[in-house]
Amino acid sequence: MSSRRESKLRAFGAKLRGFLRGRQGDGEFDEEVREHLQLLAERFEGQGMSREVAAAAARRQFGNTTLLQEDHKELQTFALIEGVWRDMKYALRALRKSRGFAAVSVATLGLGIGAATAIFSVVDNVVMSPFPYKGAGRMVFPRTHNTQQNNDDGRQGYTAREVLEFAEGNHVFDGITAAAEELVLYKQGEGAEQFYGAHVTPGTFEFFGMPALYGRVMQPSDYEPGAPPVFVMRYKTWIERFNGDLSVLNKTFVLSGTARTLIGIMPQRFGWYGADVYLPEKLTREAKAGFADASAYWFILGRLKPGVSTQQAEADLTVIAQRLAKIYPQDYPPHFNVLVNKLGDSVVGRVEATLYTVLAAVGLLLLIACSNVANLMLARATAREKEFALRAVLGASRARVVRLLMVESLALAMAGAMLGIFLAWAGLKSLVAAMPQDVIPAESVIELNGPVLTFTVCVAVLTALIFGLMPALQSSRRDLNDPLRDSVKGGTGGFRGRRLRDAVVVMEVALSLTLLIGAGLMMRSFVALREVRLGLRADHVFQAVLPLPEDRYKTVDQVTGFFRPLLARLQALPGVVDAAASSTLPPYTYAASKMEIAGKTQGEDWQTLFQHVSQGYFRVLRIEITKGRPFGEVEVNNGRKIAVVNETFVRRYLPNDNPIGQRLRLARLETSAESSDNAWFEIIGVAADVTNRGLQTPIEPEVWIPYTTTGSDARVLMVRASQEPGTLMNAVRQVVWATDSGVALAYPGTLEDRITAGLYAGPRFGLLLMTLFGGLGLILVTVGVYSVMAYSTTQKTHEIGIRMALGAEGGEVLGMVVRTGLRLVMAGMAAGIAVSLVLGRLIGEQLVGVTAYDPITLAATTLLLALTAAVACWIPARRAARVDPMVALRYE
Amino acid sequence: MVKVERMEDAMDAKKSEVLQGTLDLMILKTLHALGPLHGFGIARRIEQVSHDVLQLNEGTVYTSLLRLQQQGWIAAEWGTSENNRKAKFYSITKRGQKQLALETENWERIAGVIGRVLRLEEER
Hints:
The complex is a heterodimer.
Chain A: H1 4-21, H2 24-46, H3 51-62, H4 65-76, H5 79-97, H6 99-128, E1 139-146, E2 157-158, H7 160-169, E3 173-188, E4 191-200, H8 204-208, E5 214-215, H9 220-223, E6 230-233, H10 235-242, E7 252-255, E8 258-265, E9 277-280, E10 298-304, H11 310-327, E11 336-342, H12 345-383, H13 385-393, H14 398-434, H15 450-474, H16 481-485, H17 494-531, E12 541-545, H18 556-572, E13 576-582, E14 592-597, E15 607-613, H19 617-620, E16 625-628, H20 633-637, E17 642-646, H21 647-653, E18 663-666, E19 681-687, E20 702-706, E21 716-721, H22 729-739, E22 746-750, H23 751-795, H24 797-805, H25 810-843, H26 855-881, H27 885-890
Parallel strand pairs in A: 4-9, 6-8, 15-20, 17-19
Antiparallel strand pairs in A: 1-10, 1-11, 2-10, 3-4, 3-10, 5-8, 6-9, 7-8, 12-21, 12-22, 13-21, 14-15, 14-18, 16-19, 17-20, 18-19
Helix pairs in contact in A: 2-3, 5-14, 6-12, 6-14, 6-15, 7-11, 12-15, 12-17, 12-23, 14-15, 17-23, 17-25, 17-26, 18-22, 23-26, 25-26
Chain B: H1 10-34, E1 37-38, H2 39-49, H3 60-71, E2 74-80, E3 86-92, H4 94-123
Antiparallel strand pairs in B: 1-3, 2-3
């Protein structure tokens, strides 16, 4: 023979041609063979044989045509590819026949993949790595924590002097920035609009490692006092307020009285401090007395040097803070330390726990989905044992059978994966739409996470493959004759198969019950949350923030001169029941101060929250006054120093006295200019408790004083309407601009919306998700139990036939079948309850008004699952009981 | 899984390879000597020549024919046979002639060597 390589090459070329040509060659060959056989037969007939004998002799002489055709094919074309293609077509046909099985498997896989990927993408983007900044994982912010009060959040705002001390004296940061907020006003059309602005310190944009998208960021020279004023805008603001119009770049805007040039627009993911605009400011050590007099409060963010732990940072910063405490003792608690928190904590902290819970839930769902698929495949495999035995006898090698099964499993897995990817994409879109806005960091961009999608697809595909290939692995142990000859008396696919299936069902039930319990607990918690009385009526109230331009509103008279006519005009509007101004919006009050009561020994930690309000405040919010009276218009207008306190205040500080007539003073409000006599406020009334620290922290003592007694703290407007509060917006804006066109109406909306967003949106979102998963889990488990029961009763048909022939009633048979099924379910539920009790501790903290071991929830969910499982067992059982015994006995 | 015997069993493979090789040569020789023939004709000729010593299924001729076609040593064409039937006729190509000459030479050389070895044995 000529060189082997040459001949091999030619053979390959011929194969390729044959493969591409396809069927054509086959037909020709068949014809050739037929002709040959015909001629042979004729020859034998010529020798005297009869037609049939001749034909048989011809065939014998020719040899096995089938094998010949196979060899022919192998030479002619790429047998492997054609083989796989043929297997694929067979698999599709087989799947089409068992439509139910295919549909359920694909749906189950898709569901598991889709849910797991969507949720994990959210958690990853929101919790684990929402910030695109350089070294974001090492960014921390300090808070000064009062060590004598455990739940003290700590002070996060610092004076310029403190910032400079931290910045220059620390040994743990390789970069530091500070930001102070300002409600920036600018003229737009007939009146003023408002930006949420942040003053930032030099080096800020370098600290984050983000250059501008258009234009440039601020350079060191821009921060020098006396430099031409500039500012930088956030991407989102640019799109929303200016429609992404590039012509605004390098234009001049009058921001809070200063003409500034817009020099840059940041990329989409930059959202530091949630600000709309960033203004440069270089810090100097102010000579003023301290915190109470500071012109701005700065939030510090530092990046730890690589290798520095948070403990080291805390120790280092505490030393600096203690130095400062010696100079400004009134700004620090007697015993304190400085703690640091990671960047995401300030926003995400509240929702982090929920997200992790949901992540766990989704993991469970994926597990349930995979076990369902596993079970379905195992059951199907056992049903096809005969088929595989037959194939083996007909000459299929083990590899061949494995190939067939793999193609079938892959077909299912691929379909499931495609559905899963689609569900993940759609699910993510809906999640992002449903997610409460202010609960996630501004910088997070939630997208489908590639690696996770790959992971979930792999998990699902592997499950399908492993369990789909089981029959090929199992049958090697036995004599082929058994399945061929065997009717199903006594065998349900081998004892081992049965145990595996049962174990899978038990696990599914346990997982599903855990999910349901989780959902149930969150539901009860949410209901309890909703029922907490806030102490006020938020319906029909329109609210907005009114930032006053600083230059024109420095003194009490100036502020009063604005609000008095404003409130009067608002009250005169049609549709307005009442109007009030205050320094903060419920349900949170942030301002706190050390407090003293005349004639009482002040404890070290006597503190209270306080608000500045107008006389209409209690009426607008329908807050009940339980003792004394609220403010009157005249006294407020005269700036009389009176106060209303809440019941918690009375309980804590005046338990044995009549609060009316007592006098108190607030350390925060006092400036050195006032004489100490003038600083006392007289208590004239007691109000019912109003939630002031959110729903999960108990109500703290609070004091309300007239806004006319001190400086410019009144910033919020609330208007009670007789109709829909939203309709008031334009009217209110006109009135505000009529009173002063330089004041902007910021963040307008209804109070109800705001409270819902602030208090309920997060828990409601978590509840929605858990219920969704609980429901999905229940459906999946029901399908799983049903399919296993249906399968095993089919296997037992023979046995049932015998029983019935021997006299068993339909009802007895039913009972027997259902009992077997329920035993599995019971085992699963017991395991599920055990698991839930263990996991319960983890979600315990998020629950309001209910413990993680709540018996009502446990009982209700167990009952629900038991009922569903019972139905799933009952349907196939009923079918089994109605079978005609004669048919059953003959059934194989 | 029961292992059904197939021709790809190791020992059989070698045997059948040699067998197929010989068959290929015989077909080439036949076509060279008798000119274009259809499959049936080739089988009859081989049956004659080998005096029924070579016991093989006639069908294997077609496998050889396909291989020879793929290597380009024979060419095929549809035509009409003696009794007016449609049949595929095979003929040897120039390359096939060359291959036949090469193979014949090979065989004769081997035969010669073996002959000499055997005679050596005898002379001992």
